[in-house]
Specification:
The structure holds two protein chains of two kinds. By secondary structure, chain A is an alpha/beta fold. Chain A contains five helices and five strands; from the N terminus they run βαβαβαβαβα. In chain A, strands 2-1-3-4-5 form a five-stranded parallel β-sheet, sandwiched between helices. In chain B, helix 1 packs antiparallel against helix 4 (119-129) and helix 9 (238-253) runs antiparallel to helix 10 (264-280). Classes of the chains: A alpha/beta, B alpha/beta.
Chain lengths: 130, 286
């Protein structure tokens, strides 16, 4: 069955080109992508993950607000006892990667990442789960 | 099995279980499912891609929620040749999460009719959970994808002012299936010609087809549309109609053979006969 992935933009970050590239790459890899669109609250993103029963959540962040919004998303996922695999991408400074990973973000993809890497990351973890 | 309306996680998982069934298991489920007496209204929304179905649904859902209803939306988008799909309907919705509001996106996974074959099972699950308004959105539909009509109480067709001339409307079977039409995006083009064309529709059915002029993005015209749809009641004959329709539909739209079935003709022949016997009450065993 196709792997279901939510791709989300949180907060006032309106830069959605990167998210569209990821949506297209995952779509072409045979996955079903629920795209939330821009300007979502953490609550809306977590509701999407829950209602869409998606085992993966990718957050695209290009506005520098990643250390503000992503921890809140993870907190809400934990509150709801969802074991969603969270990954992030966009403009996230290397210095912040460790902090995000410590929170539970499985992988942070930086500029220069190929779409193939993202597809392989998801496929690998999905295979390990089943 | 009834899952409470507020258990969004449980509902979501149950829907995934349905979508992950093999075709034969899905068919068996459709054949053996117990169908709830209609307790809520099932509203279908169909029309071409980009006409504004999702945006209108979001606006209607907001109004239903404000009126105290419990609203579930099932929005369908196409599965592409890659096997993947972009489920991009939540994009049009900015409603804060609430226990009375549930939205699930599904891919067509090769089913025809701009639907997913197991949709009636999902609708039944949500009605049984206690949602009193279930809104079903088809994937972009053109002219002959009318299968949605037999699964809903009321069918809203969304068009844009540029939907074409009288000949296009004469070709369009969705206009025959629809209970009402919303001509959307009227801020972008003049709807006068289309409204004049649609004026004669529905008279052969005894009443003119209700046509609403709206611009969902600004909210213009949505209140009269909502008032009309709000008056819709569960169709009394929905349950008996729905069951055979669902069976026939699942049967028609299953593509490919269940695992371990070597002889397609024998398999589908037997199922078809069983379904026809159930639907028509005939003794057809051929």
């Amino acid at each position: 069955m196709p792997i279901r992935v939510v791709i989300a933009k949180v907060g006032l970050d309106g830069h959605d080109r990167g998210a569209h590239v990821i949506v297209r790459a995952l779509r072409d890899a045979g996955m079903e992508i629920v795209y939330t669109g821009i300007r979502q609250t953490p609550e809306m993103v977590v509701a999407a993950v829950e209602q869409e029963d998606a085992p993966f959540l990718g957050i695209s962040s290009l506005s520098g607000s990643h250390l503000h919004h992503i921890p809140r998303v993870i907190e809400l996922l934990k509150e709801k006892k969802l074991d969603t695999i969270v990954f992030a991408g966009g403009i996230i400074p290397a210095a912040d990667v460790a902090a995000l990973e410590k929170l539970g973000v499985k992988r942070v993809f930086s500029p220069g990442t190929t779409t193939t890497e993202v597809v392989e990351f998801i496929n690998g973890l999905a295979a390990a789960r089943t | 099995m009834t899952i409470p309306r507020t258990d969004h996680r449980g509902l979501a998982r149950a829907i995934t279980e349905l979508t992950d069934l093999t075709p034969s298991a899905l068919l068996e489920k459709a054949l053996t499912a117990s169908w709830p007496a209609p307790r809520g209204v099932v509203l279908g929304v169909t029309g071409p891609a980009g006409a504004g179905k999702s945006t209108i649904i979001a606006a209607l859902a907001e109004r239903y929620l404000a009126a105290g209803n419990a609203v579930a939306v099932v929005s369908i988008d196409p599965t592409l040749k890659s096997g993947g799909a972009v489920l991009g309907d939540r994009v049009r919705m900015a409603i804060p999460p609430a226990p009375k509001f549930f939205w699930r996106s599904l891919a067509t996974r090769g089913s025809g009719n701009a639907l997913w074959a197991g949709l009636p099972l999902v609708t039944a699950l949500l009605l049984r959970a206690g949602f009193d308004r279930v809104i079903v959105e088809t994937a972009g539909a053109g002219q002959d994808e009318t299968g949605i009509a037999e699964q809903v109480d009321t069918l809203l067709l969304v068009l844009t002012p540029l939907a074409g001339d009288i000949v296009q409307q004469l070709k369009n079977d969705l206009l025959e299936a629809a209970s009402a039409v919303a001509v959307n995006r009227c801020d972008e083009a003049n709807p006068a010609a289309l409204l004049a064309t649609l004026a004669g529709f529905g008279e052969d059915r005894g009443a003119p087809l209700p046509v609403f002029t709206v611009t969902a993005l600004t909210g213009a015209g949505l209140d009269p549309l909502f008032a009309a749809l709000k008056a819709a009641t569960p169709r009394r004959d929905l349950a008996p109609l729905w069951k055979p329709a669902a069976r026939a539909y699942v049967l028609q739209t299953i593509d490919g053979l269940p695992d371990g079935q070597a002889n397609p003709e024998a398999f589908f022949g037997a199922l078809h006969a069983a379904c026809r016997a159930e639907i028509g009450g005939t003794k057809d065993r051929s």
